[in-house]
Design goal:
It is built from ten helices and eight strands. The chain is an alpha/beta fold and 233 residues long.
């Protein structure tokens, strides 16, 4: 939480490894992804990407993580009560069940940095209504949990996230492993097909934008806590 759970190389690697372990463990019925601190995920680790010399590796890792969540043959629950930004929304879109608390806020911040929600569109676009996607992708504005439910990003918003997670997990424990493994692909088929069809194009778009002059200025302004030069707001 010291960097607002930004998607660093280490964090993405750890989560991906845990998903692989859970997939291989017959004793695991479902996976719960949660957080500590006030932020579920702040999106990409922009400082790390800059120090790595470019976005190529970061976008590749993010693609692998999101696809691993969608394709995992067990239900993935994301439970949170905090801020969700950019790449964090991609994780919500990849999950099967998303449970939000009352303190949660959401924003597709890419457009305000000179970027686009390219990689995360692969998991969020198919979950959201077209009007919600257009509004929140294009404005980068912050929205609350009730709006996220209406948009299709969140399954349910509750006051007690832990109690809801317990309820969902109890329901899953009553299900057969075979039933879960065969049912999940029915619900994720369209998302996974769209993901595989668009992954290369979105990776190329993301890399091109990260290397653009406007994005360099937008990211620098964000890190320096100042308005970008091209902002008219």
């Amino acid at each position: 939480p010291d960097n607002r759970n930004a998607l660093s190389k280490a964090l993405v690697g750890d989560v991906t490894a845990h998903l692989a372990s859970a997939s291989a463990d017959a004793g695991v019925r479902a996976v719960v992804i949660t957080h500590t601190g006030r932020t579920f995920c702040a999106g990409a680790d922009l400082k790390e990407q800059a120090s790595e010399g470019g976005p190529a590796e970061g976008t590749r890792r993010m693609l692998d993580l999101l696809r691993a969540i969608v394709a995992l043959p067990k239900p993935v629950i994301v439970a949170f009560d905090g801020h969700v930004r950019a790449g964090g929304l991609g994780i919500l879109g990849a999950a099967d069940i998303t449970i939000s608390g009352p303190a949660s806020t959401f924003a597709f911040t890419e457009v305000r940095l000179g970027l686009a929600p390219a990689i995360i569109s692969l998991t969020t676009l198919g979950r959201m209504t077209s009007r919600a996607a257009a509004r929140y992708y294009l404005t980068g504005e912050t929205f609350d949990a009730a709006q996220a439910v209406r948009a299709g990003l969140v399954s349910i918003s509750v006051d007690d996230v832990d109690a809801e997670v317990t309820s969902v997990c109890d329901a899953l424990r009553a299900c057969s492993p075979q039933g879960l493994a065969e049912t999940k692909p029915i619900t994720t088929h369209a998302v996974l097909a769209a993901f595989d069809a668009g992954a290369t194009q979105m990776q190329q778009l993301s890399q091109r934008l990260f290397e653009s002059e406007e994005a360099r200025e937008g990211i620098a302004a964000f890190l320096q806590k100042r308005p970008p030069r091209w902002s008219t707001g």
